[in-house]
Protein: Sensor-like histidine kinase SenX3
Amino acid sequence: LDPRLVSARASVIGARMALVIIRDITEQERLDQMRRDFVANTSHELKTPVGAVSLLAEAIESAADDPAQVRIFAARISAEAGRLGQLTGRIMSLSRLQADDGLTDVDPVSIDEVIAASIEAHVVQADSAGVDLTRGGDRGAWVRGDAQILIEAIGNLVANAIVYSPRGSRVGVGVKADGGVVEIAVSDQGIGISESDRERIFERFYRADEARSRRTGGTGLGLSIVKHATQRHGGEVRLWSRPGRGSTFTVRLPQIDAPPIEDTGKKRKK
Ligand code: ADP
Structure:
């Protein structure tokens, strides 16, 4: 054994290890930076409604002898509180989805039930926005996962489709179950998304149209939740859009066979 060879190999191995360590440190730094950004963005987003609530409370104090004014301010406090509730709920969903542990609830989930619940939760919103909300496509598809997370994700897509659409337009939720993949497509005839925004809208707190999103009560977290929820289920989200014409978000999930009736009965009663 040539000692020079041994030392040469040792230095190669040493260099490789150093590379691995450097890579780990960079990855760690990236994650730390993401966490810091998330905390900074979250605090920034929370400041707006909290500030509004305290200003409105002061306004109520000084308008105490004008009941009409008090009612207006109280209604606005209630709206801001609702916004805070939605924001904290979404932040919690997202941090749960981003935690390293896998899904805890991995039962068979009926896509029919996920879609029915996601639509049901937004019927009133669609009605008041004058948008026709319809469901089409295949029935009877199943996936494995957490029904509540999937309902939240598809619900976010439906909510966005309604928000970014004009009155009198249609939002469709369609299913295609084929070749071991279930595709759930949420389509709208709304404002659409430009090519540069398409790459970024799945990022946390990113809004293509900042003013519109805030006006309509958006948090900038909905699509981030959709992306993480889908990935947690071993799937992916695809987006097609044309500005001025509309958008289609497609969630693709691994399909499973329909479970035996007794399991489905148990799920339905829940
Ligand atoms: P928000 O709460 O602001 O809607 P999301 O994460 O759900 O946050 O969406 C991010 C951004 O992507 C939105 O602010 C909006 O600009 C854009 N967007 C999402 N869905 C649609 C859609 N169906 N049509 C047009 N733009 C959309």
Q: What stands out?
A: The chain has a mean pLDDT of 90.
